[in-house]
């Protein structure tokens, strides 16, 4: 059941920003929540920002798929290690994508405010990835024969 949830979450993460690429005018309301000054943007700007957001969602979706793969075949830890690494990298990549998206969406403004935001939610992904990696390393130590 956990595998199915992780796979469904991955599909949704990948599908959601595509809405902005395919139907940019209807996706604008979603972007305005994060980028309130993006009122007079063009469809092309919305599509570009959506494509950028698809990249960060793709990182998180890949992490979930790797965890689902590990749950399905826990004999090898490689998928889980990569999943944990992607969880650790996700907030950093997301921050870069957010700044890039703001640059695209605010390019029509003369003095556009672009800021870096680091939140507890982003810290959670890093800590969860580190905890997952620590669990993997400790489990590997238990399953390897002593010399």
Question: Main traits of this protein?
Answer:
elongated; 147 residues; mainly alpha
- Count, helices: 5
Q: What level of helicity do the residues show?
A: over 70%
Rounded mean pLDDT score: 87
Proportion of beta-strand residues: under 5%
Biggest sheet statistics? none
Which spans of ≥5 residues are poorly predicted at pLDDT below 50? none
Order of helices and strands: HHHHH
Counted beta strands: 0
- Through-space gap between termini: 38 Å
Q: Structural class, judged by helices and strands?
A: mainly alpha
Form type: elongated
From the alpha-carbon coordinates, what is the Rg to the nearest angstrom? 18 Å
Structure notes:
This protein has five helices and no strands. The protein is an all-alpha fold and 147 residues long. Helix 3 packs antiparallel against helix 4.
Overview in brief:
The chain has helices at residues 2-22, 24-34, 43-72, 78-105, 120-143. The protein has 147 residues and is mainly α.
């Amino acid at each position: 059941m956990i595998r199915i949830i992780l796979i469904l979450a991955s599909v949704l993460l990948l599908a959601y920003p595509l809405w902005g690429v395919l139907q940019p005018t209807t996706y604008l309301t979603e972007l305005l929540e994060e980028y309130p000054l993006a009122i007079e943007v063009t469809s092309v700007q919305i599509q570009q920002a959506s494509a950028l957001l698809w990249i960060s969602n793709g990182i998180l979706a890949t992490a979930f798929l790797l965890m689902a793969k590990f749950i399905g075949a826990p004999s090898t830890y490689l998928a889980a290690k990569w999943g944990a690494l992607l969880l650790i990298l996700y907030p950093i990549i997301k921050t870069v994508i957010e700044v890039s998206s703001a640059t695209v969406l605010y390019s029509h403004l003369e003095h556009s405010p672009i800021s870096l935001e680091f939140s507890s939610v982003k810290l959670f992904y890093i800590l969860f990835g580190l905890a997952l990696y620590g669990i993997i390393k400790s489990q590997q130590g238990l399953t390897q024969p002593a010399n």
